[in-house]
# Entry
Amino acid sequence: MTTWIFGPCSAESREQVMETAGAISAVCGRTPFIFRAGVWKPRTSPRTFQGAGEQGLEWLKEVKRTYGVETATEVATPEHVAAAVNAGIDYLWIGARTSANPLAVQALADALTAQRSGSHLEAIQQPKAVLIKNPVNADADLWLGNIERLEKTGIPVMAVHRGCNHLPCWKMAHIVRTLRPDIPMLLDPSHMSGDAARVPELMAKIAELNLNGSMVEVHTRPDTALSDAKQQITPRQLQECIEKILNFTRDVHKTELNWLRAEIDELDDALWDTIAARMDVSRRIGEWKKANGVTPLQPKRFEQIRSQRMEWAKQNGLDAELIAQVMEAIHKESLKQQE
Ligand code: PEP
Ligand code: MN
# Structure
């Protein structure tokens, strides 16, 4: 079973919520999905939209009645848990900022347990699952600890991988996936990239890494969105993503290799970004040298950084020949940039 969670970053108004839910229902057809919308928004600045609050829960209730879909919202305090559960919200997610604080997660776990023991058999009001996003910092142990805290509530737990600072952090997710293969893991390509244009390519990772579904931010007019405007896709773009992903075949034999490739591709991105940034500094050094009558080639300086790096290579078990070749190539290009 693949879990699909689609909806806007924030519930902005009754009209926006209903319109978006209707548009997503239309593109999903018979593919079941959970409708998401945040009503309490953990925003960086207090001067931006903070969410509609409890009235947003009423809009989610209306979505459920009108379109017959399950609903999800973010909880960050025990009061949010009580309000969301009492409003019949089916899935609760804990956001990346809350996930960075174990005391906050424990308080939510305690609230879920209290809610559970307070409910009567005839009218059980409890979420179908609680979803825990990875913390904003790439800390696999903290994410694993949060999963454990939430499991004690007896409510099913799912993990949502949303990256850190718009980097995918595949290594962290790979660790969690390996240690807890029993916990479903969903991908959040919207927060992972922060860029609507990159969402479709990231969706392919669901099949490649054999993940259990996805949470995607969808808005009928992303450019007018009150939060996360750059990363929300339209229902039409969502339709293209779903069509593609439903046609993917999962080659589970290659899943582990694909995880390792995701890790290495991310390292390569960082490596090339660093080389590009290094060339930029190198050009600026070239300008300074020109202005001050210094020649680009400074053999003493190069010899100094080369020998330091050789020592470092020895300590880190890296092949000296490889380091020498790479340094030579980078230095040659730097000199070219400075001439
Ligand atoms: C969200 O899903 O809208 C959200 C705030 O996510 P995150 O906690 O991953 O930033
Ligand atoms: Mn968001």
